[in-house]
Amino acid sequence: QSFLVMILLLTLVVNVVFVMDTSRRFRYAEEQELQKSMKISPSNTARTSERRRQVMAAKEQLARRDMRISLTSGKELASIAVDGTIVIEATDGDKDRGIHIAVLHQATGSVMAVRHFDTYVEKGDEAMVLFINMVSDGRILCLVVKDEGSFSLKDAAKRLLKNLGSQYGSSLGWRDMWAFVAEKRGSVYGERISKSPSLSEWAQPVTLEAIVPTQPGDKAECNWPESDENDRRREFCNKFEGYGSLCDCHNPSPIVIDPRPLSNNRVADVPVAVIASNRPFYLYRMLRSLFAAYGAPNPSMVTVFIDGFNEEPAAIAQLFGVRGVQHAPQSQKNGRIAQHYKASLTGAFSLYPTAQHLIIIEEDLDVSLDFFGYFSQTRQLLEEDESVYCVSAWNDQGYDHSSKDPTLLYRVETMPGLGWILKRRLYEDELEPQWPTPDKLWDWDMWMRLPQIRKGRECIIPDVSRTYHFGSTGLNMNTYFQDAYFKKHSLNTQPDVQLRDVSSLKKDNYEHVLEDLLSNADSLDHSKLPCHDEFIPDTTDKTYVFYIQMSGASDFQTWMKVAKCFRLWDLDARGFHRGLWRFFMKSNHILVVGVPYSPYSRYKPSSVSPIYLEKKDKSQ
Q1: Is the omega angle on the peptide bond into residue 252 within 30 degrees of 0, that is, cis?
Q2: How many Å apart are CA 214 and CA 191, to the nearest integer?
């Protein structure tokens, strides 16, 4: 009986081996037929890129499948799932309101981008149009509405949806629900809409099941020449979407940029710390701008510090060949940002142990062509003048209408940030030991402006900024705030600016500069109000002064009203030196002196009464 059992087991094993071998031979024969049909000889060992693509296509053809995409559009929920895996699940009230988009790879079905656009609010549709236009042709676009997505959907966005093949997108109405799946510049795979019965009601939820066949891999990959740059490009563009010309098959934008060098570059040994979060599109734009600037450093001198373990920003850093450092977030809200800055600054000085200075720039800034030239010329002030706290590329008051001279520098008591250079000694000896702890939900830059931290030192700033803030999303940022306070800031466009008498910015020298200016300035008519257009004469290249009421170091009541009249930064007092502000109006150099607080009050003629603007009663 035992013998019979052994015979049966042996027979079973032989049959299993036979089936497995037959299956292997069948698969091998099938691959041989595919290879023959594409004229690839299995004995040919040449590793050309074309043959690699053909082999990949053969394997993909064996594994070709359909994607099953499920979409839900409703007042309380918008969702997208691919083959049962949830890609988007939006349930957070007004925060998730608008149109949600998922972009899928047409050959693999992998998720390449997930975006949300609040098309209920102004300009949400513009951001959506920009994003879709930056997506490569052939990708699979999945769109769903949550709650309300039509209020600010203007004609350009509706035309785009129609051009994508949508029948209903251009007529999307108030509180309608809508789901749509299509290949960009290709087939439409499904669309459903549910109309709102009245202004006070939401439409019934919509569900859509779309079957999308995967495409051959050779249709989804560009035929770029073989190079290290294109290897990085290919790896990135096969995983992420929305980068426009970076992934263009015919004329891709370069990622290795060869900028013009600087003569006598005094910041070539200064590392650059890029402060980043999870805004990869911002980081991409910023790095392109940074490496296009004259005198841009070798990528080995640039480190991107990423708050959190986010794949896409890290891939952006790798794309440009720079180091990416990720760390676990600490604290929350502004406290989290402060801890990210501390970790980044400490990490940068640790990575570059011989560096005595560090250039710090955020991911949502463009830089001017002379960004490094500006710091190259001003670095000496950090080395030679102990009263200099930092050198910043940003002027808080430097709007298109209020700045003019790219050669001109100021000293200010407030710390602007937004592209600045920091001394190692200041950071390690003073700032790092006192940095706010994670339980303090403070703004790091406001903390750096505190009198007990600043200790009477000042920052050097340009009249015309060398950075431009373009980010409209973030913890403390939205589209309205960006448009109101940052959009019209000036950015220097002259590539080779020789700064005017940099040594005059040293502490004692700067006082002589101001004395000369005030002694020769024409006093404005103080019987007129600053808000009136005729307050500043219609002249050019003149220097004017006017005096405002300022009883003490923190009395900014009249200044804040003046700032609002002149459309300057008016959320808090910035950009002043010992109770004096400098800017341009109608191409005239304007000095504003706070009386009696400012020591420059002595230049006020006895016949002039300082301007006092009352704070309006909130009940009025």
Answers
A1: no
A2: 19
